[in-house]
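In this section we walk through a basic example: taking a raw amino acid sequence and producing a predicted 3D structure, encoded as discrete structure tokens. The instruction is simple. Fold the sequence below.
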Amino acid sequence: IETSKLNFSGKCPQRQENIATTKLIQCGMAEKPENKVFCFEANPYIAKGGAKTYPGINIINKAVSNINGKVSLHIVDAEDENSGLSTVLDYEYTKNWRTIEVDCISMESYLNEHSEINSIDVLKIDVEGLNYEVLEGFGTKLGIVKSIQIESEFINYHEKHSFKDIVMFLYSMGFEMVDFTALYRQNDSLWIRRDLLNTVPIY
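The resulting token sequence is shown next.
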């Protein structure tokens, strides 16, 4: 996919990233229609709109963590320019956000229920501080993931785990970091499963 052709506009960095990611997904599906995309979106309003706008993407209206059950989700009002933002963590800035109860599932549970998914080419994680719990929730199923793009936080606010914890966890699970970009308080990193490094072309 030629990312240079993916033009997008918008004042909000969060929206810009979401638009770019969506266009990458659409290009990937257009190039190979057999590709299947699964998107987990905890916010029911975003999930409903996404299902209508992108009917070719499997949108699952659930939060993802290392537990199964109900969780409280803090969401930004729809009229806010960063309306795609939500989190299950209690930050100082979420006190004035609306809170709703949503279903939560671990990826190990979901993949056990959907055994037809036996390989994941790309896993993208952007969960506002819950990265470690999402990864931990894969259990042994993390072994079917080939690559991971993850947005993490440098500075811990209310997260139980630091970026160093995430790095050590992924190394222990057989992944190598092949790209890293610092973004003020956050960072983006790209990981490839170690056994694929000699076969995956790096451009």
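Looking at the output, two observations stand out. The longest strand covers residues 98-106. The two ends are 12 Å apart (CA to CA). In the next section we compare this with other chains.
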